[in-house]
Every structure is written in structure tokens, then in C-alpha cells.
Specification:
The complex is a heterotetramer of chains A (106), B (308), C (93) and D (96). Chain B has 11 helices and no strands. Chain B is mainly alpha-helical and 308 residues long. Chain C has one domain: Orthogonal Bundle (Helix Hairpins), CATH 1.10.287. Helices cover 85% and strands 4% of the residues of chain C. In chain C, a hairpin with a 2-residue loop joins strand 1 and strand 2. In chain C, helix 1 packs antiparallel against helix 2 and helix 2 runs antiparallel to helix 3. The longest helix of chain C has 36 residues. Chain D has a domain of 67 residues. In chain D, helix 1 runs antiparallel to helix 2. The chains are: A mainly alpha (106), B mainly alpha (308), C mainly alpha (93), D mainly alpha (96). Chains in contact: A-B, A-D, B-C, B-D.
Chain lengths: 106, 308, 93, 96
């Protein structure tokens, strides 16, 4: 059981880093605020989740593993609600989502 | 391995310099403030790298959190627009460049002089005094027993800042948000248990590991700021609760003074805490100091006296 | 290694002084003061690495310094807000 | 994947956040850049915490997570308020 966890942990961490890179790519290249918000919150939280799972598999004790997972849960709550707050404020302030090719960047 | 660490250091240093440069010279004030918040974040990583975990905790809570919130709240009230660039006439450029060069050289020279100073340090003395201080973590021992006078004066400075902010006039009422934000109360409710649990944990850890009253008070204060944002602490504005608020604000300082005078009575020396009660006394003072720091941060955030 | 961080602190404080002198807005001056404070904290903590191990006294000083820095920032921001608001009240009516 | 290599890759991702904070164009973009940096810092701290066997690093990561929420909430309730609404066209509403 423990050996299986130790075997799977590096792959989980690598997958997490991959998702972080995908989020960074989205933040860099996506055309408007809303798509960048989408890319960042989804990819980063998934990346952090996989990374936390991998690190929790390697953790020294169950309580340490639980604390690492607590960090993930906290970031998940904070960034998902934060994304909603920012998106609705941006919409109310008149930033229009990009709808078709050729429309201007917001 | 060590190449990796050197690369890590270089990246951190380059990031810090870039962020500081942009925080000071980016034309837009909002961008400057966000750069400064990111600067605090990278600074916390630097503290971790330098094995100063107490400072990393305090910087994470205060440098990025509370200072950033203060600056962002102030930005919303300041007239916006890019700040005017400093216009220099052609003949002014050489002397200004000369002055800047001299300043940079002076900074380097001062750092070099400080670097060359003999550094015996006080770690041996602190380690020797640790058994009599009542705690096992040297930084907490220095803060609350060995150099407790500094900490008390620091609380007094903070109270003075609150006094100054409140004396300027009534609380500045916030402008309405751009839209209804139903997520905000949910965020507050979900995060609130953590904002109470984490400071308690940090206080408990402070006696034997990095933690203690300053990070705990800062985290509690940040939680209080979140409550203020969601309008969840109406009692702070009620006129009949003002005496209670003032009492709580000064609790940390008053208990510290009581400890100092108690030491004077019991042992004949100002701030000499008897070993037998040191652990308990430090714990009580730490709890009161954390509570006061949290409330003082919230009080500063109102930018004026509430209930007036 | 710690020489690198001392150099970084010197560069940061030079940058902060430069920003402090060239700033045209009060908010920028506050940012510059905060960067300067961080640079000095960095220098202090770097100097706390001695042959005998970590010196806890500079660490405690920096901890109190961080809290003092945030309270000065709050007081200065409150002063700036009051100054700009009274200016508007005079010019508006 | 060795943790140090993972940490280096995450630091490489951080350059995108730095660029986004500098470039904007809107203030939400800048806040997003800062949020990405804080998530990356949490990930790096957790990696280093297990690598160096320093459990206190997890506490620092926890604080980063808590205070990112405070920054976002302040931004939407205090900075991007109705104050400056009438002063410019909505397309360039940068809130700076």
C-alpha cells in the first residue's frame, strides 16, 4: 500500500506541474479577461490539487497529509469564489466578453 | 543540488528587483500596488530561503495581506489617472543622474560596511537564557521576555497609529460595489473557521516553534478585515460599544504594562518575569497582544473613527 | 551565498531611495518607504547568519519592524486620503 | 519528478504571472497575475516543505491561501467601486 503510494506520487506531482503550465499558457495567450480567468482558476486549482495529492502520498504522517490537503481545499474555496466575484464585477463594470473572431481585445 | 539552490536564489533576486522597480516606476498606480503585493509574496519566499520562518509567517500575513488590503482600499478613494512623470529640464539631467549614482553607491557602501562589521551575534547568550524564559523558541523568548520592552513600545506605536487615524475624523463610508456580490458572505462564512483556527494554532506553536503573537494577530486582523468587507461586524460602528472597543484595543499594551510592573514588585526589576510563572504569563500576554494587534489592524482599515 | 542577499538588499535600498526621491505622488512615496523597509529587514536577517548559528535578536527586531511598518503605512494612507478629500470639498461647490 | 525540478518549472510559470501583472491591460488581469503568483508560491512552499522536511512551510502556504482571498475581496468591494464609473468609457475601465 505505502509502496504503491510512493510509486504513484511522482507521477501525480508531474501531472500537477503540467496543469500549472497549461494555466500559465492560458493566462499568457487567451484573448480576454473571462477566458484568462477560466484558464487560471481551473488549471491552477487542478494542478495544485494533483500536486497536493502527490505530496500527501509522500507525507511523513497522516496529520501532515491532511494539512496539505487542507491547504488545497482552502485555495479551492478562496479562488473559486474569488473568480466569481471578479467576473461579476468585471461584467458590471462593462468589460465585454469577446464573442467572435475579429472583435477587439477587451 | 547546490547549482539548483544558486539558480533559485538568482531567480528570486531578479524577481524582487523587477517587482520593486515596477512598483516604484510603473506609470499606473494600480499596477504599482499589485507589483508591491507580489513583491511581498516573493519576499516571504526569500525569508523561507534564509530560514527565518517567523518572519516568513508575519510577512505572508502582513506584507502581502494586510498592507495590500490597506493600499487597495485607499486606491478606490483616490482620484485615479496616471501620475505625472517628473519633468526634468535638460540642464537638470546631469546633476540628477549624479545624485542618483551617489545614492546607489552610498547604499552599496553602507551594505559593505555592515557586512564587514564584527558579528559575534547574541545567539549564545539567548541560548543560555532560554531555560529561564519560560518558552523554548528563541525568537519568542526574545520578543516576550528578554527584550519585552521593545515589543511593548511597538504595541504603543501601533496604538499611536490608530489614535492618529481616528483623530482625523469619522470613518470613511465605503462606496457601493459595482454589482451585488452574493459570493462575499459565502466566502466569509466558509473561511471564518480557518481564520479563527489558524491564529490559535500559531499561538500554541509559538512557545516551541515559529509562530507566536505577531503572525497570529496579523491573520486574525486579516480575517477581521474580511468581516468588515462583508459588513459582518456592525458592533464596531455602534456608539454604545465604543468603550468596549477601546478597552479591547488597549488590552495588549495594558497587560504588558501590568506584567512589567508585576515584575518590578516581585523581583525588583522592571520586566523581570519570575521563572515559575513565566510560561503562563507569556501565554496570557501573547493572547492579549494578538487580539489587540488584530483589532488595531481592523481599526486602521476603517480610515477614521467609527460610531461618530 | 549570504553575500548575494546583502548585495540584493543594497540594490533594493538604492532602488527604493531613487523611487522615494523621484516620486511625484504620495502613494508612490509610501510604496518606496515600504520597499526600503523590506530591504533593511533583508540586510538585518542576512547579518543574523553568524558562525555560531542563527541570531534570534535581529529576527525579533524585524518582526516588530514589520508590524511598525504596517501601522505607519496605515497612518500615512489615512493622512493622504484626508488631504485629497478636503481638496475635493473645497473645489467642488 | 524530483521536487527541485518541479519547483524550477513552477518558477518558470511565474514569469507569465509577472508579465501579466506588468502588461494588464485591465486591473482584473493584474489581480489574476498576482493570484497565479500566490498559487505558485503555495505549490513551491509545499514542495520545499516535504523536500526539506520543514512542516512549518505548510503553515506559510496556508497563510498565502487565506490572504489571497482577502486581497480579492478588497479589490472587488473597495477598489473597483462606483466611484470612478462616470469618468471613463466602460471599454477602458481599468480601475487604476
Amino acid at each position: 500500500m505505502t509502496e504503491g503510494l510512493a510509486l504513484i506520487a511522482p507521477w501525480l506531482i508531474a501531472a500537477g506541474v503540467l496543469f500549472f503550465m497549461a494555466g500559465a499558457l492560458g493566462l499568457w495567450r487567451f484573448p480576454d479577461v473571462y477566458s484568462r480567468l477560466h484558464a487560471l482558476t481551473k488549471a491552477d486549482n487542478l494542478g495544485l490539487g494533483l500536486l497536493c495529492l502527490g505530496l500527501a502520498c509522500q507525507a511523513a504522517s497522516v496529520s501532515a497529509a491532511l494539512k496539505i490537503l487542507l491547504v488545497w481545499g482552502l485555495v479551492l474555496v478562496a479562488s473559486s469564489i474569488g473568480a466569481t466575484l471578479m467576473a461579476s464585477t468585471a461584467l458590471a463594470r462593462g468589460l465585454r466578453p469577446r464573442t467572435r473572431r475579429g472583435s477587439r481585445d477587451s | 543540488m547546490s547549482t539548483f539552490i544558486i539558480g533559485f536564489d538568482l531567480l528570486l533576486g531578479a524577481g524582487l528587483l523587477w517587482l520593486a522597480w515596477q512598483a516604484l516606476f510603473h506609470p499606473k498606480p494600480f499596477a504599482a500596488v499589485v507589483h508591491f503585493m507580489a513583491f511581498g509574496l516573493v519576499m516571504a519566499l526569500v525569508w523561507v530561503r534564509l530560514e527565518a520562518l517567523d518572519i516568513a509567517l508575519a510577512e505572508a500575513a502582513i506584507g502581502t495581506g494586510v498592507t495590500g488590503a490597506l493600499l487597495l482600499a485607499a486606491l478606490g478613494r483616490l482620484p485615479n489617472g496616471a501620475t505625472p512623470r517628473l519633468a526634468l529640464r535638460p540642464w537638470q539631467r546631469p546633476p540628477v543622474a549624479l545624485a542618483l549614482g551617489v545614492v546607489l553607491l552610498l547604499g552599496l557602501w553602507l551594505a559593505w560596511v555592515a557586512w564587514q562589521l564584527p558579528r559575534p551575534g547574541l545567539s549564545a547568550e539567548v541560548t543560555a537564557a532560554l531555560p529561564e524564559s519560560g518558552v523554548r523558541h528563541p525568537v519568542t523568548a526574545v520578543l516576550l521576555n528578554l527584550r519585552a520592552l521593545d515589543t511593548m513600545l511597538e504595541l504603543a506605536v501601533m496604538l499611536g497609529a490608530v489614535w492618529l487615524v481616528w483623530s482625523l475624523g469619522p470613518e470613511l463610508r465605503p462606496y457601493a460595489p459595482a454589482t451585488a456580490l452574493p459570493g462575499l458572505p459565502a466566502l466569509t462564512r466558509l473561511l471564518h473557521p480557518l481564520f479563527l483556527m489558524v491564529p490559535a494554532y500559531l499561538l500554541w506553536r509559538g512557545s516551541h516553534a515559529p509562530g507566536g503573537a505577531f503572525p497570529a494577530g496579523a491573520v486574525l486582523g486579516a480575517g477581521g478585515v474580511l468581516l468588515l468587507l462583508a459588513d459582518a461586524v456592525p458592533w464596531m460602528q455602534r456608539p454604545d460599544r465604543q468603550p468596549l472597543l477601546r478597552l479591547l484595543l488597549s488590552t495588549g499594551l495594558v497587560l504588558f504594562l501590568g506584567l512589567a510592573l508585576g515584575g518590578l514588585l516581585l523581583t525588583g526589576t522592571f520586566f523581570a518575569i519570575p521563572v515559575a510563572i513565566a510560561a503562563l504569563a507569556i501565554l496570557v500576554v501573547e493572547v492579549a497582544a494578538a487580539l489587540s494587534i488584530a483589532l488595531m489592524l481592523m481599526a486602521c482599515y476603517l480610515y477614521g473613527e467609527p460610531g461618530r | 551565498m549570504s553575500g548575494f542577499f546583502a548585495l540584493l538588499a543594497a540594490l533594493l535600498s538604492g532602488l527604493a531611495l531613487l523611487g522615494l526621491f523621484r516620486a511625484t505622488s504620495l502613494l508612490r512615496r509610501i510604496l518606496a518607504l515600504n520597499v526600503l523597509a523590506s530591504a533593511l529587514f533583508l540586510l538585518l536577517v542576512t547579518l543574523a547568519h553568524t558562525e555560531a548559528g542563527l541570531d534570534p535578536v535581529p529576527h525579533a527586531m524585524v518582526l516588530t519592524g514589520i508590524v511598525v511598518a504596517v501601522s505607519t503605512t496605515a497612518a500615512a494612507l489615512a493622512l493622504i486620503l484626508r488631504a485629497t478629500h478636503s481638496h475635493h470639498d473645497e473645489s467642488d461647490p | 519528478m524530483p521536487p527541485i525540478l518541479a519547483a524550477m518549472l513552477l518558477l518558470a510559470c511565474a514569469t507569465v504571472g509577472l508579465w501579466r501583472i506588468w502588461r494588464g491591460p485591465t486591473s482584473v488581469d493584474r489581480m489574476l497575475g498576482a493570484e497565479q503568483l500566490s498559487t505558485l508560491a503555495i505549490a513551491i512552499l509545499l514542495l520545499l516543505g516535504t523536500r526539506l522536511a520543514q512542516p512549518a512551510l505548510v503553515d506559510v502556504a496556508l497563510l498565502f491561501g487565506l490572504l489571497a482571498a482577502v486581497a480579492t475581496a478588497t479589490f472587488v468591494t473597495r477598489t473597483w467601486t462606483r466611484l470612478h464609473e462616470a469618468q471613463r468609457r466602460p471599454e477602458e475601465a481599468e480601475g487604476d
